[in-house]
From TrEMBL:
This is Nickel import system permease protein NikB. It is found in: Cell membrane. Belongs to the binding-protein-dependent transport system permease family. OppBC subfamily. The complex is composed of two ATP-binding proteins (NikD and NikE), two transmembrane proteins (NikB and NikC) and a solute-binding protein (NikA). The chain crosses the membrane at residues 9-29, 104-125, 137-160, 172-192, 231-259, 279-302. GO terms for cellular component: plasma membrane. InterPro entries: BPD_transp_1_N (IPR045621), MetI-like (IPR000515), MetI-like_sf (IPR035906), Opp2B (IPR050045). Residues 98-295 form the ABC transmembrane type-1 domain. Gene3D superfamilies: MetI-like. SUPFAM superfamilies: MetI-like.
Length: 315
């Protein structure tokens, strides 16, 4: 196991290096001069002399390899640069907005678990009944509806028409309900379908019949044997989905004016704030690869066969 983890950590560094190259290159290929945009945002006449002076100050006149070298060396030292728009360190800007994004992600994750697990289990246990048909219909609709459209529908019914919940901002727990539902319901549908399919496959295996033959109760068979073995594909998807939940907050935070990193990213993209965009993409990529590593390690605790396989690799 230790050797396997070391291999994945080394692979992580190569992935992050590739992501840094792609991020740096793609951001600098986008149209528009950030120096000119920044001057206009500050209400300053963007004369060629003023633009050139600002470009020199920001280091934008240096060759791209030199700019990349300066940027990546600062990143490795914990300096993510300074936001062109606010003039503050990017690390402070992201750190200030990180709690709001984490709060929304955790709430969305709770929605996913509270909706998908009971729905998937019930659909599998009561296969081809009314409960199963309702669950599959919800899963189909939920997986087909875009998150931004779902958010607008929830706003119309729960905030505008019936005035049950606030629409925008962050404050009371009520402000969290609509963004969390928008973020989590679509993914809940996907998980419910995945859990149903996995449970039906496990319930048809011989060891389930053997457990029933030993006199175990149906709840013990379902929860202690079938559900535990059906978790493996869900853990794989859940590890990836946590990253997608963080990334999905970009749309949700924009719709509900949630003051998180996603909303800040959208403003930075329109303002050509390179430092913020690069730092956000690197952060999301790092979270993705770390989550993938944790998912792989968790396999060994869920499925004993994975422990044996990884032990064989170490030997």
């Amino acid at each position: 196991m230790f050797k396997y983890v070391c291999k994945r950590v080394v692979f992580l560094f190569f992935v992050m290096f590739g992501v840094s190259l792609l991020t740096f290159g793609m951001v600098h290929l986008t149209p528009g001069d950030p120096a000119e945009i920044l001057l206009r945002m500050e209400g300053i006449n963007a004369t060629p002399e003023a633009v050139e002076a600002l470009r020199e100050k920001l280091g934008l006149n240096n060759p791209l390899p030199v700019q990349y070298g300066h940027w990546i060396s600062k990143v490795l030292g914990g300096d993510l640069g300074v936001s062109f728009e606010t003039g503050r360190p990017v690390l402070e800007e992201l750190g200030q907005r990180l709690p709001a994004t984490v709060e929304l992600t955790v709430a969305g994750t709770m929605v996913v678990l509270l909706v998908s697990l009971p729905l998937g289990l019930l659909s599998a246990v009561y296969k081809n009944t009314l409960v199963d048909h309702i669950g599959r219909f919800f899963a189909l609709v939920g997986a087909s509806v875009p998150s931004f459209w779902l958010g607008l529908i929830l706003i119309y019914f729960l905030a505008v028409k019936y005035q049950l919940l606030p629409v925008m901002g962050r404050g009371s727990p009520a402000h969290l309900v609509l963004p969390a539902l928008t973020l989590g319901l679509g993914m809940s549908a996907t998980y419910a379908r995945l859990l149903r399919a996995s449970m039906l496959e496990i319930l048809g295996l011989d060891f389930i019949q053997a457990a029933r033959a030993r006199g175990l109760t149906e709840n013990a068979v379902l929860l202690g044997h079938a559900f535990k073995n059906a978790l493996l594909p869900l853990v794989t998807a859940f590890g990836m989905s946590l990253g997608h939940l963080l990334g999905g907050t970009v749309i949700v935070e924009t719709i509900f004016a949630w003051p998180g990193m996603g909303h800040f990213l959208v403003d930075s993209i329109f303002g050509r704030d390179y430092a913020v965009v690069q730092s956000y993409v690197l952060l999301m990529a790092f979270i993705f690869v770390i989550l993938n590593l944790l998912v792989d390690i968790s396999y060994a605790f869920i499925d004993p066969r994975m422990r044996v396989a990884k032990k064989g690799e170490d030997q």
